[in-house]
Each structure stands twice: as C-alpha cells, then as structure tokens.
Specification:
The complex is a heterodimer of chains A (252) and B (300).
Chain A: E1 9-18, E2 21-31, E3 37-40, H1 47-54, E4 62-67, E5 70-71, H2 77-84, E6 87-90, H3 102-107, H4 116-124, H5 128-140, H6 156-169, E7 174-178, H7 189-203, E8 206-210, H8 214-220, E9 223-228, E10 231-236, H9 243-250
Parallel strand pairs in A: 3-8, 3-9, 6-7, 7-8
Antiparallel strand pairs in A: 1-2, 1-4, 4-5, 9-10
Chain B: H1 15-24, H2 28-46, H3 58-70, H4 88-121, H5 123-132, H6 134-156, H7 159-170, H8 174-199, H9 203-210, H10 215-249, H11 257-266, H12 270-298
Helix pairs in contact in B: 4-6, 4-8, 4-10, 5-6, 6-8, 7-8, 8-10, 9-10, 10-12, 11-12
The chains are: A alpha/beta (252), B mainly alpha (300).
C-alpha cells in the first residue's frame, strides 16, 4: 500500500542571480517529504538563497523549480501567496513583531489565509478555539508559560521557538529553517534539532534546514546537500560523506 | 525573465547606521560646530545686539519691580471688583477648562488630519507598488509627494499666523482657534510620524510578507506597532505644546488663559496676572507628569 511519494521540491538547472552575482548556478535535486534534509556548506555558498527559492520568497532567474509539483514560474501572485501561506519559514534574521505577546505572534501565522480584519481580530480578541490551538503549539515547543510574554522579553532561543510555533500555526506542509542553531545556546542545539525533527515526523512536514554545524547535520539528518560556490558539491546520506569530501566542502 | 522578488534585492535596511558613521567622521563635527558658531555671531552682528539692551530703563525698572514683587503674592480675589463678574478663582477654573478644551479639540482635529497624511507620506505604505514600478508606481510617487508637500505647507505656517489668517476670514469663533492649532500640528505630526515609521525595523513586516500577508496587514500589523510607542509619546508632547498655544491664542481675543493674562497685565493687576500664569504652569506640569506616567505604563 506504500504509494510512491511525490517529491516536495524538484529542481532542474535551478539558477538565481541577485544583481550582478550568480548566487546559484544550475542545481538539480528532488526532495522527498519524508526525508528531512540539511543544507550544509560554507557561508556564502547559497544556502539561504536556496531556502528563499524553496519558500518562493525569491523567484528563480533560470531553470525549473517545482513546489509540490507546481511550476513556480507559472504561478500568479495570488497563487504564490496561497502556496507561501502553507510553507513555514523560520528566519535567521527576519523577526517576530515586537510589542505583541508570544501568543499574538503565533496568531499571525495564519495571516496569509485570512483577510486583514480577521487577522486584526485574532490579535485583539482571539476566539476560544484559536487560543487553545496557540497554547498547544507553545506547549509543544516548550513555551506554554510564556504565552503572554512580550516578545522583547524572550531569549534568543525562546524567540526562535516562538517563530517555530508561528510557522506551525500556518498548518504548513513544509518547514524551512535558516540556521536554526544560530540563535540558540550551543548546549541546547540538540534539543532544538530534536524538536524540529520530531515535529516533522509527527506532522508529516517536509523539513529543510540550513546548518553551519556539519557534525550535528550528520547526526540528525538522513540527507545532506552540500553547497559550495552556488553549486551542489555533495548530495546523499551522511554515511557516504567521506571526511575528505567534508573537508573539501569547507576548504578555502 | 523578470525576477519578481518578494524582498527588495539584498539592500541592508540600516540607512541610519550610514548616517551615524558619516556624522562621526573626525573633523566633520568640529567644522560643523565652527560653522554654527559663525552663523550665530553673524546673526548677533546683523541685529546690532548689545548686552546693554538687557538692562531695563528707569521707568521699565519700576514696572518690572512691581511685576516681580507680585509674583510672591498672587491674587486669590479680584484686585479691582467688577460688578456682576464671578469670583476670581471661579473664573480661573472656567477659563483653564476652556483652554484645556481648546487644546483637546485642536489636538483631536490634528490627529484626524495627520493620520491619512502620515500614512500617505510613508515609504512603507508604497513599498510594494514602487517596487513594481510602471504607471502605478509613478502615480504612487506623486501621491506620496503630494502628501509630503501638504504636510510641509501646514507646518511651515505657525499656529499664531494661522490664527491671524483665520481670524480675518471668520472672526473670533472658537472653531477658528481649534483649526489654527490643528493645521500646523497635523503637519508636524504627519512629518515626524511618517519618519518614525520609515525608520523602524522593516524585518518583522517582511516576515509577515513571507507568511503571505497583504500590504495593509504588513503595514498596520508588522510596521506600525513598532513605532506606536514613539508616536504616542510624541503626540503627548505635542499635546503640551497645544496647551501652551491654546493659552497664547487668548492674546488674539479667544477666551482662554492668554486673554486673562493680557487684560490683567494691561490693567496693572499684577497679582491676578501671576494667578493666571501659575495656573498655566500648573496645567502644563500636570500634563507633563501625566504623559510621563502614561508613557511608562504603555511604552515601557
């Protein structure tokens, strides 16, 4: 009864140029929804840009990209918005909205599928059901007691987990995380990765994370894509990545 | 092929930092201070000022002495009884209340007028349309410039000058006084408000855009809340200004504290003069304290 899974993402000759810089130069890959993937490689290799392409925040300047079998080049602005509203994106630097509580920020997760006024109502007077849903999500990421806390009072790690809860409130099919460990105390790195992979498993999310830390990526993710200078230098399970190949990936 | 970027391509948001760096360059600041000093000296010379002018003439010295002497014994009853007039302190309460009402009404109208001007003047409101360019972008730029020009015109004329203009057209009606306060205040509120919004961190709003938010949601839920604290603090401060302006409008005949200050001074009732002046001072201090309390409570 196991159906062959359709790829969550498929890229053929995917290119991205930002200004005069060729950021990604012809990538080919397919990502399966049940295979959490880590993007590894040195800074400037194009990991964040690739995540933004997958999240349809940027459009490719060449090649093909299919998100759940839909050609992103053919989608209208409204269709893109609809697609985006189901892709959770945990940014490294794009932040929570200050002045709101953790719960209100989580409530903003559905802003893409709701009208403006409905979003305002969720902020000012969320319904009983919504409040419960938000509380459950904050509980899941270990922040139930921070429900009312203004986000300025959250630590880096707590803000990160609030952003994850906001992404989950979107009811996403895909979760993209840009350097999720950057904001976290190194001793909590494993906890955070366990949380992300656990969420992907229990909710059937396609998970793609960019990670600096190759060791942790090897330990947690069944698939690694190594980027170097905007091209794929490695693609496969961590066991097959020889230490020579790993060194070459990060060599100057 | 057009790359329809969701985000403006990679330009760092920190324009303020560049400005700070430039301002901190050595030598530049010294030259600026020297230039300002030179301009001040030039103005001093152009007006032919001499410190001797600050020494009062003998006749003036007598008036000044009497006036300052009265400062220690403000009147609590009318110095010269006026048949049929209410007692001094009752009149003080009524006129203080009217001054406050002028300020509140003026500030209320100013806020109503400033809000649309403020939003139309921001870059944040038009960001998406401007990125798209074309005829729509050009139209947006035109509307934005129009709003900025309108608020510049409003604030370039002082409220007292507005009062003179409106007085000559409509007479001493309370409403002209309110409008005289509202027009320039709306201009300054719109200018400062739009700058506060545009200088706030754009990243939370961009994060909302990634969630699929529309332009209105991005601006009102992701951008405006960041500067709401500063905006309300500034509005409180402007309210104190409105209170002083409302009082001064009395010199043009509006029935506020200024009118009482003027008549009591002209009639040499210096005790009453100080009573009204102390009342104005007390009102300003009370509202300063109140706005500080509110700011601490809501802005943090």
């Amino acid at each position: 009864m196991a159906q062959p899974l359709t790829p969550a993402f498929a890229a053929r000759g995917l290119r991205l140029r930002l200004g005069a810089t060729e950021v990604l130069r012809g990538l080919d890959f397919e990502l399966r929804p049940d295979e959490p993937t880590a993007l590894v490689g040195p800074s400037g290799a194009g990991k964040t840009s690739l995540l933004r392409l997958l999240g349809t925040a940027l459009r490719p300047t060449g090649g093909e990209l299919y998100v759940r079998e839909r050609d992103v080049r053919a989608l209208s602005a409204a269709e893109l918005r609809e697609l985006r509203s189901r892709i959770g994106f945990v940014h490294q630097d794009l932040t929570l909205v200050p002045g709101y509580s953790a719960a209100s920020n989580v409530g903003l997760g559905r802003i893409g599928r709701r009208g403006f006024w409905s979003a305002v109502r969720t902020l000012l007077a969320p319904g009983q059901g919504e409040r419960l849903e938000i509380l459950e999500l904050l509980e899941r990421v270990g922040l139930a007691e921070r429900y009312h806390a203004p986000v300025e009072q959250l630590s880096g790690g707590e803000a990160q987990r609030t952003a994850i809860a906001r992404a989950l409130f979107q009811e996403p099919h895909t979760l993209l995380c840009d350097e999720p460990l950057a904001a976290v105390d190194p001793t909590r790195s494993r906890d955070l990765l366990e949380l992300l992979l656990g969420l992907a498993r229990e909710r059937g999310l396609t998970l793609v994370c960019s990670l600096h830390n190759l060791e942790l990526a090897r330990e947690f993710f069944p698939r690694l894509i190594g980027l170097r200078d905007g091209a794929i230098a490695y693609d496969g399970p961590p066991a097959d990545l020889s230490s020579a190949a790993a060194d070459a990936l990060y060599a100057f | 092929m057009r790359s329809e970027a969701l985000e403006p391509g990679g330009s760092p948001p920190a324009g303020g930092r560049d400005r700070a760096l430039r301002a901190a360059a050595p030598g530049r600041r010294t030259r600026l201070v020297l230039a300002c000093t030179a301009v001040a000296a030039l103005a001093y010379w152009a007006l032919g000022l001499s410190l001797g002018e600050l020494v009062p003439r003998p006749a003036g010295r007598a008036v000044l002495g009497e006036l300052l002497g009265a400062a220690l014994r403000p009147a609590i009853a009318r110095e010269v009884p006026i048949p049929g007039a209410p007692p001094l302190l009752l009149d003080l309460l009524a006129v203080a209340w009217r001054t406050l009402a002028f300020a509140v009404a003026g500030m209320g109208c100013a806020l109503l007028l400033a809000l649309p001007l403020l939003l139309l003047s921001t870059d944040a409101l038009w960001a998406r349309v401007l990125e798209r360019g074309g005829a729509l972008g050009a139209a947006a730029r035109l509307v934005r410039s129009g709003a900025r020009l309108a608020s510049a015109l409003l604030r370039s004329v002082h409220e007292l000058l507005w009062a003179v203009l409106l007085l000559s057209a409509f007479g001493v009606e309370p409403f002209t006084g309110v409008v005289a306060i509202a027009l320039p205040f709306a201009g300054t509120l719109a200018r400062l408000g739009s700058e506060m919004i545009d200088e706030s961190d754009p990243r939370p709003a961009l994060a909302l855009r990634h969630l699929g938010a529309g332009s209105a949601a991005e601006l009102f839920l992701g951008r405006l809340p960041l500067s709401l604290g500063d905006l309300s603090a500034y509005a409180f401060y402007r309210f104190e200004c409105a209170l002083r302006s409302a009082a001064v409008l009395g010199f043009f005949g509006y029935d506020t504290l200024g009118l009482r200050l003027k008549t009591s001074f002209n009639h040499l009732r210096y005790g009453e003069f100080w009573t009204y002046l102390y009342a104005l001072l007390a009102m300003v201090l009370v509202f300063e304290t109140l706005s500080a309390l509110l700011r601490r409570r809501f802005v943090g």
